[in-house]
Amino acid sequence: MQRTTSTTTRTLRRTAKPWVAAAVAATLSLPVLAPCASAAGPGPAPGTTACAYGYTSEATVWFGADADSGVPNHETRTGCTVMDEIMADAPFATHGRFVRTVASVTKDLVREQVLTARERRDIVRAADVSEVGRPHPVTGRRSVDLSAIGLVGYTVRATMPTDAEGTLAALAGCGFRNIEPSGGAGNFYGYTAAELAPLTDEAGLEVPSLGVSLSNLQNDVDLVVAEAHAIGAKYVRISGSGSWTLADYSRTAAILNEAGERLSAEGIRVAYHNHGYEFETAEDGVTGYDVLVRETNPAFVTMELDVYWAASTDTSATDLFARYPGRFELLHLKDIGEDGSFADVGAGTIDFAEIFAAAPLAGVRYGFTEHDQPSPDGVTSACTSLGYLAELRY
């Protein structure tokens, strides 16, 4: 069953989570998604739990792709989950503190018969091999793997419809090896994925990810699969809406889980790309972004963190990595000026060395540079950003 519950503190985990005052917890009534609800926009059902908007019980106890315990994320006696209990104290200052927390929480849950002794051993073992709490310092001795860097096609949206061949060739000429076309299934700058594929192939560009719409995932999953296969994409990503409530984010998480499971069978992962509103829509300290990360199943869904939009709300990418380890397989690498404007990567205020140093904790596989308002043109801006990353040492 899909849950809409969130974390508790270590000391209060039998009553309410830290960001929900006792009086609010007693009176708050939040919509809860019904199991197996339709992706077309199910109506919420009333209900509350001790951990509103927390980690889904449909997943496993998971601390990163290489640190999956395989143990179901059981509900506890309060309606929270094992992950709610463990991650209540996140982020963790040290790896040792994290492992000790896991050992302590799971010992209690064995005593309460939520976990078996074998399950506890598997969870503690996964915690021990995880990146959680480990130091990820900037040493200045490592270079960015440019084979895992691409461009978000939105940056060159002005020229792609009229000169796709020239645009793609110019991007490849300055060193790009990947591109993430933006649009919707069946229409990327006027091309289907099957029509665009020969052009990216000719330019020598891989297409690891496609930007599609939420409607595509709800209504056109077969078309999404066909488009991804036609161009070789292993990820499809969607974005949300600034008008959503937390209940809407919860419903979207369920849609992502359902579509993600379907696409997983085809070798495709679903990703969610943020703007700023996910961090600004909040109830009692829980943001829309929290809901999306906690309620999606990491076996099927990952996050594509746009570091510009996070920074625009004073949200640090590395803080998110520490709070939600392993959940960020894709990044949008965009810089922000001191006045909040868009900037080429390296020309603004974001510390990209810190972000790349923490990439193992985040689980990053690809980063895509982007500029929403490129100057003097998309190709020039893109190549400037790539040039900075080529010189970056972290």
UniProtKB/TrEMBL annotation:
<keyword id="KW-0732">Signal</keyword>
<dbReference type="Pfam" id="PF01261">
    <property type="entry name" value="AP_endonuc_2"/>
</dbReference>
<dbReference type="GO" id="GO:0016853">
    <property type="term" value="F:isomerase activity"/>
</dbReference>
<feature type="domain" description="Xylose isomerase-like TIM barrel">
    <location>
        <begin position="169"/>
        <end position="358"/>
    </location>
</feature>
<dbReference type="InterPro" id="IPR050312">
    <property type="entry name" value="IolE/XylAMocC-like"/>
</dbReference>
<dbReference type="InterPro" id="IPR036237">
    <property type="entry name" value="Xyl_isomerase-like_sf"/>
</dbReference>
<keyword id="KW-0119">Carbohydrate metabolism</keyword>
<keyword id="KW-0413">Isomerase</keyword>
<dbReference type="InterPro" id="IPR013022">
    <property type="entry name" value="Xyl_isomerase-like_TIM-brl"/>
</dbReference>
<protein>
    <submittedName>
        <fullName>Sugar phosphate isomerase/epimerase family protein</fullName>
    </submittedName>
</protein>
<feature type="signal peptide">
    <location>
        <begin position="1"/>
        <end position="34"/>
    </location>
</feature>
